[in-house]
Amino acid sequence: MQVEFFHDVICSFCFPMSYRMRKIANKYPNLTITHRSFALGWEKEQFIQMFGSHEAVKGEVLGHWEHANQNDDEHRFNIEGMKEKDFLFPTSKEGLKAAKAAGLIAGQSAYWNVFDALQEALFVHNQDISDKLVIEAAVKKSGVSFEQWKEQYEKEETEQAVIEDLQCVQAYGIQGAPAVVINQKYLISGAQPQEVIEQTIEKIAAEEGFQLSGLQMMSSDGDACRVVDDKWICD
């Protein structure tokens, strides 16, 4: 079953959702999870258009953090720490490129690790994740090959891959992040509770005839030998 997880490094509700989706990945190992970019504020021009100025973003967004912290199972947001910082609220672009570069060189797990490291840097440690040094530190923390990552990060194809994800957002008609699209036709919108995500996935799997864990039997049992009660029995 194909799962596309749309999220943004600066999205507060994406932080608790990523935590829950990792539990989903562990519980249902047969899912194929692909990470997709969603940009709430690609560059500062988008912030100015939405908020009137780049400076106005932080005050508004910290109110969102309050709600996201309540949503977060671990309540990890450092809101008071962020209030003391004087940098402008980071944009989406560089962080999304950083995660995409990791995914291009080392697969979806590398994308996820860099993405989560960037979100932790912002929401817990109150660092400016549009700053190249902060991004590089997060990449190094993730365990991906830094030299390979840096080379990929600087390639034009990396930004293009992010833009293709954003085009996918438009094609699906997704209105906000986080969003999970299953088999290109089912949508889980927003940071839903763990049990709701699991119930939804299990319902879809049943409708699609998909086995979420273990091996799916592709034919009837053939002749075989097995051990039963310490005895070797063959058909």
From TrEMBL:
Coiled coil: none annotated. It comes from the Bacteria. Pfam families: DSBA (PF01323). Signal peptide: none annotated. SUPFAM superfamilies: Thioredoxin-like. Keywords: Disulfide bond, Oxidoreductase, Redox-active center, Signal. Residues 2-201 form the DSBA-like thioredoxin domain. GO terms for molecular function: oxidoreductase activity. Gene3D superfamilies: Glutaredoxin. This is DsbA family protein.
